[in-house]
Amino acid sequence: MLGEYRAGSGASVITRLRGAWEETRKSYAFIERNWYLTKRYWAWEAVWLTYNIVNALSVTFIAASAQKTIPGVHFTQAQINQFILYLTIGTAIWTFVSVVFDSVTETVTMERWEGTIEYTFMAPVSRMTHMFGSCAFALMHGLVLTAVQLVVVGLFFHLDLGKANWPGAILILAIGSISLIGLGTVSAILPMLFTERGAQMAYIIRAIMLLVSGVYYPVDVLPEWLQAVSRISPTTYTLDGLRQTIQAGMGVGALWYDVWPLLICGAVSVPLGLYIFHRAELFAKRTGRLKRNG
Amino acid sequence: MAILNRSVVREQRMSRNEQDNSRHTLLTERELARLDAFPPLEVSHVSKRFKESGGFVLPGRPKREKRAIAALDDVSLAIQRREIFGVLGANGSGKSTLIRLISTLLIPDSGRVRVFGYDVLREQRAVQRLINRVSVEAAFFRKLSPMENLLYSARLYGVNASDARTQINQLLNRLGIGSSRIDQPLESMSRGMQQKVAIARAFLTAPVLLLLDEPTTGLDPRSKQDVQVFVRELRDTHDATILLTTHDMDEAEALCDRLAILDGGRIVAAGTPGELRAEVGRNLGLTQPATLTDVFMAYTGRDLNQEEDLADD
Description:
The structure holds 2 protein chains of 2 kinds. By secondary structure, chain A is mostly helical. In chain A, about 75% of the residues lie in helices and about 0% in strands. In chain A, helix 4 packs antiparallel against helix 6 (about 125-155), helix 4 runs antiparallel to helix 11 (about 235-245) and helix 6 crosses helix 7 (about 165-195). Chain A is globular and about 70 Å long. Chain A starts with 12 loop residues before the first helix and ends in a 7-residue tail after the last helix. By secondary structure, chain B is α/β, with parallel strands linked by helices. Chain B is about 40% helix and about 20% strand. Chain B contains 13 helices and 10 strands. Chain B has helices at about 1-15, 15-25, 30-35, 95-100, 125-130, 145-155, 160-175, 180, 190-205, 220-240, 250-255, 275-285, 290-300, and strands at about 40-50, 70-80, 85-90, 110-115, 120, 130-135, 210-215, 240-245, 260-265, 265-270. Chain B has a 6-stranded mixed sheet, with helices on both faces. Chain B has a 4-stranded antiparallel sheet with strand order 2-1-4-5, covered by helices on one side. The longest helix of chain B has 18 residues, at about 220-240. The interface between A and B is medium-sized, with 33 and 34 residues.
């Protein structure tokens, strides 16, 4: 928001700050609009929440059944509980990532469908403000759905949270979310450019993240070339950091090897995402792809 | 009589420049100064072509040639402040492309578009603060209510939310949408009512250049008349300049101070309705001025309902 506001080269600091404040206020338009849409589509929210919970339970039961599925190996209850917690964190973060991606891409998809995209794109709002508002709502939306899912999963399994370092976990999640804004912005380009199947094409970004980020297994088990890909996925570091803080109770200071890649991913992905979105918008305006469809 | 009333109102308005400017509460002093210094709209030698996709071709097969379609071809026009300028054209003649170019939604291949002196490409944000648009289809989040849709739009333009709520209620009531409907989903409303909400959305952001792209197409006569009255009122009371594209000759006659006829992406005639009718009447050897339909037929050689082979409208 700050970057794109043009107050002129001679504008005073106060004018620039006022401009930045105006843009911040405008970003609330997207948060409020998405909240209204979420309320109106409450049935879909319920379906999506149920799907995520059922999915998380299905995956987590794999850990609960470890003793029976691997004959001849004896696991202690503490080991099984650790496995359960490992998968619970994986499913929770996967829900969070999925909801954030879906929320961001769906706002563009829905705008295309309803024909409002032209009105949003001709409003005096920077794309950074646009994406900031959309992503802020997506992050809040993701947090709420993930929290509900965790509560329900907690009713089914014993989650050993005795060592958890919650402030550290929250910090890791916050830093990891910055990269999600960048990646979400990139994924929002697809429904803008590819009218009919753009939203579905965004799934490929999520699918690759699911494969390489260590959601349900450590990345060490991947072939080496996929491990190399996992190093550029911010979700790899978010998951590792969360598991270390929640399962092992480690402090953020000891997790510097997860924090700095997340900071770099955030610092690179947000401006890069906005730049790519800007280029895609120019392409859409050159080729007439912002027209109503649906 | 209506024309007489309009001219009296216009004279009164011309002497109230300063009062008019005080209405533009969303504009800065610098922007207000530009309103008197520059014409609302200058379109200079603008061309726009669209390429059709060649589609996927198997290796070894001959590639299909991409067809380029000229939507606008060297179009130039200028609009004076507080004018209602009409653009007449058949479907596919390039009207909507012209509106989209001015709205910063398309990039021209060549030529320049300026709004109050601001270039639509280089000073996009400044242009966006001064304009708004009503298109042939009322595009809204249909699950949301008029209040929710309009509040979203108002926030994007920096209108304070509490002021916006008051204005939205007043505007929609003024347009005949009762308070009980304001919080109901738009999908339950008729097309005419949705179009009125679209007009309210544009008015809410206090544009000084309003782009109306066939705003009454498909509306019943009553809704059409309501919209036309409101458009006139918008110009007379709000100091707005209006670019209107239409199919409707009666509407053009009733609303427009000047007209341009767009055919195949080119402007083939321009002038006041009276001038155009008189000229065509003379050319056709009529004893009285021709109708606007005669004018249209004379310059385009086609019926309004005949579509041109263009993709934009």
